[in-house]
Design goal:
By secondary structure, this protein is mainly beta. It contains one helix and 34 strands. The chain is globular, with a radius of gyration of 20 Å.
């Protein structure tokens, strides 16, 4: 069914001057058969072969590049829960840019003027603030909370339920862990997930690994290639394997 038919049925609402390539695919019905309205704002541009699912709202002036998948409902088993493929509300604010090949699952919200890099995956219920930039080939797992003015470089993995407060900077290839026991489908055993937490303005160098439950303090700095297994106090610099105190961070 084409976009005109969906508009007639009230399942697709288009703003003024929306530019949609003829190959864009709209899927208002989720895997349970329920339909949710797709809303596209003014002056939005959607490029070839993008897929927009039910429940997605796209704000004014947003750019959705080629082969983006947006609003895909989660389906199947993951970490002790079975997802039925039911669509949630997915909100893309004004001025957002989703680069080619990126994927935003159902329930995602992205704040104004944020850019998501090529082929980056954002899983169910992740929330991303405004004026943030996420690099290429990243993974943002379920229920993460990423603040405003955050910068994350390509190939970084942010494990589920991790919090990045405003102004956090993560370099490339940063890895985060939330499961100390590394349990997968063991009968009668439910994994205890304890994600790391990144406080305001902290910075983490390329290739660093942050263990489960670790808290990186406000304005702290983690050196390149470090392995962090303990909390990092505010305004301190740590480095090494395992990471140890190096010095206090200079103000200003």
């Amino acid at each position: 069914m084409n976009s005109v038919e969906f508009q007639k049925q009230g399942l697709l609402v288009l703003g003024k001057n929306a530019m949609l390539d003829e190959s864009v695919i709209f899927l208002p019905h989720d895997q349970t058969g329920e339909a949710k309205v797709i809303k596209i704002g003014n002056n939005v541009r959607i490029m070839p072969s993008a897929i927009i699912c039910g429940g997605v709202t796209i704000g004014d002036r947003a750019v959705i590049e080629a082969q983006v998948i947006l609003g895909q409902p989660e389906y199947g088993y993951a970490i002790g829960e079975v997802y039925p493929g039911k669509a949630k509300q997915t909100d893309i604010a004004e001025g957002v840019i989703l680069r080619a090949g990126s994927i935003g699952y159902s329930g995602v919200s992205i704040g104004p003027n944020t850019t998501i890099g090529h082929r980056t995956l954002i899983r169910t219920d992740a929330q991303i603030g405004g004026n943030t930039q996420l690099g290429h080939n990243m993974t943002i797992e379920r229920s993460c909370r990423i603040g405003d003015w955050v910068r994350c470089t390509g190939l970084t993995h942010i494990t589920s339920s991790t919090v990045l407060e405003d102004r956090v900077f993560l370099g490339a290839l940063v890895g985060t862990v939330n499961d100390k026991a590394m349990i997968w489908k063991q009968e009668g055993v439910k994994p205890e997930l304890i994600p790391p937490y990144f406080e305001y303005g902290c910075t983490v160098g390329t290739g660093a690994k942050i263990a489960a439950g670790v808290r990186i303090g406000r304005m702290a700095m983690v050196g390149t290639g470090s392995v962090v297994t303990k909390d990092v106090a505010p305004n301190t610099i740590v480095m090494g394997v395992p990471a140890k105190f190096y010095k206090m961070r200079e103000e200003g």
